[in-house]
Design brief:
single chain, 115 residues, mainly alpha, 2 strands, elongated, transmembrane helix, membrane, transmembrane, DUF6479
């Protein structure tokens, strides 16, 4: 029964642990602010510079997948390790692809398509 009885010493100990934890966190925040204040900002010559040719702009081109090598009937089947990554090459035609007349245009979702 005496172990189950509330003890003022136990609650005082928990309070002191909580105060010590808050003090530790506040001290670490204070120390981090001091360290950050001592850091020097980069000098202008250390800042990133534009390339000599000027700013690099986006290049828009249409690409098509590279062909998978064909294997004749007498050859062995290619394993995934013998294939290159899915490389692409610039398309011969740089015209923007349009919908095929009479095609669905809804990416095969069962839409009505052109009438």
């Amino acid at each position: 029964m005496q172990l189950a009885a509330p003890s003022g010493l136990l609650s005082l100990g928990l309070f002191l642990v909580a105060v010590a934890l808050v003090t530790l966190l506040a001290g670490s925040l204070w120390l981090g602010c001091r360290i950050r204040a001592r850091e020097q900002l980069p000098r202008p010559e250390e800042q990133p510079q534009l390339p000599p040719g000027g700013a690099v702009h986006e290049v828009r081109e249409f690409r098509e997948p590279a062909e998978i090598p064909k294997v004749d009937k007498t050859g062995h089947a290619l394993t995934p390790y013998e294939l290159a990554h899915s490389a692409t090459r610039p398309s011969a035609s740089q015209e923007r692809p349009r919908w095929v007349e009479g095609g669905s245009g809804s990416f095969g979702s069962g839409g009505l398509g052109p009438h």
